[in-house]
Amino acid sequence: MNFKKILPFLFASALVFNVACSNDDFVEETKNQAYENGIFITNEGAFTTPTSEISFVSNDLGTFENKVYGNNNNNEILGNVLQTIGFSGENAYLVSNVPNKIDIVNRYTFKKQSTVTSNLDNPRYIAFSGSQYYVTNNNFFNVMKLNVYNTANNGFVTSISFPRSAEKVVEANGRIVVQTDGVTYETAPPYSELPTGYSLTIINPTTNTVANTITLPSNGIIRDLIAYNGDAYVLASSNTASYIYKVNTTSGSFTTTTLTLGQAQKLRIDANKFYFNDSSNKIYTMNLNSTTTPTTPIVTTTGNLYGFNVIDGRIYVSDASFTGDSKVNIYSTSGTLLKTLTTGIATSGFYKN
């Protein structure tokens, strides 16, 4: 893989070096803020080779760097499948599905602080509450659980097992919400998608026990789970319709927005607007309180739409390759293409730092 840094980042690095001789304090401050005010991009990597990595683009889109983890950790290899990133305080937690680990780095320098491997079995997603963090583990056969760790020393606290799945996990209004149902597949051709069920499991982080199990309507397949302003939002879809559920994690109640648009895949919220994509690479938006299904996409992308997020008025979309470099297109929320980047293998996520 050919990782490159564009000129502005090289210039910034040279500036830091030149100042180092005369003002060590200034240099240290600059280093500590090297990855502040930008977006981390996860490159999942190939399943059979250790090609996971991180890219970074600044908020002004003027500074871009590939191979952030290796560049700041003596070219150390991150792993095979980087699933997600979570943030707590000054740390970023890099959850690798393969090889079953969580690397904890300083989110501003990306220097590694420690690595967690205890009780992990195909870790997936991460959320935080108080002095603890919560990691779903799902090998899709016999391990579907939520691990709890202490942020102070990364010590393992406990596990909570589930009957069918353990996928997305978020913190919402003081509760930990786990997507405990999703998708499975037929065992023979054409291997069509099948729902495993329609449950969310609510965890009380004070006791680390199940507070409630919410069963959503039997519509389509659960595709996504996110949190926004204290509420959890779930996206489910079928071939003919899609559903957004706003979940009150305290009462267990929910409201439903039905969309006359099938196969919505990923859900994001930015500035009180929903954004979602369908299976034909079209991205739509609508107000949170709207009940009218949008009919005109704001963006239609090409290639393999694998990663998608909307952050501070910009839409980030990856055209992922699983054998070579991926592409990232950055749009305004009106659909104007602002920037195209070349990233790593299987670019899958975008995270505000």
Topology:
Blueprint: H1 7-20, H2 24-32, E1 38-43, E2 53-58, E3 64-65, H3 68-72, E4 81-88, E5 91-98, E6 101-106, E7 112-116, E8 123-129, E9 132-138, E10 144-150, E11 156-161, E12 169-172, E13 175-179, E14 183-185, E15 193-195, E16 199-204, E17 209-215, E18 221-228, E19 231-237, E20 242-247, E21 254-259, E22 266-270, E23 273-277, E24 282-287, E25 299-300, E26 305-311, E27 314-319, E28 327-332, E29 337-342, E30 347-352
Antiparallel strand pairs: 1-2, 1-30, 2-3, 4-5, 5-6, 6-7, 8-9, 9-10, 10-11, 12-13, 13-16, 14-15, 16-17, 18-19, 19-20, 20-21, 22-23, 23-24, 24-25, 26-27, 27-28, 28-29
Helix pairs in contact: 1-2
Features:
disordered N terminus, globular, 4-stranded antiparallel beta sheet, 3 helices
Strand content: over 45%
Please tally the β strands and state the result. Answer: 30
Q: How does the overall form come out from the CA principal axes?
A: globular
- Count of helix runs: 3
Give the overall pLDDT as a whole number: 91
Q: What class do helices, strands and sheet pairing give? A: mainly beta
What's a quick, concise take on this entry?
With 353 residues, the protein is mainly β.
Task: Kindly describe this structure.
The protein has 353 residues and is mainly β. It has three helices and 30 strands. The strands form eight sheets. Strands 3-2-1-30 form a four-stranded antiparallel sheet. Strands 4-5-6-7 form a four-stranded antiparallel sheet, with no helix packed on it. The chain has a four-stranded antiparallel sheet with strand order 8-9-10-11, with no helix packed on it. Helix 1 (7-20) runs antiparallel to helix 2. The longest helix is centred in the first third of the chain and has 14 residues, at 7-20. It is globular, with a radius of gyration of 20 Å.
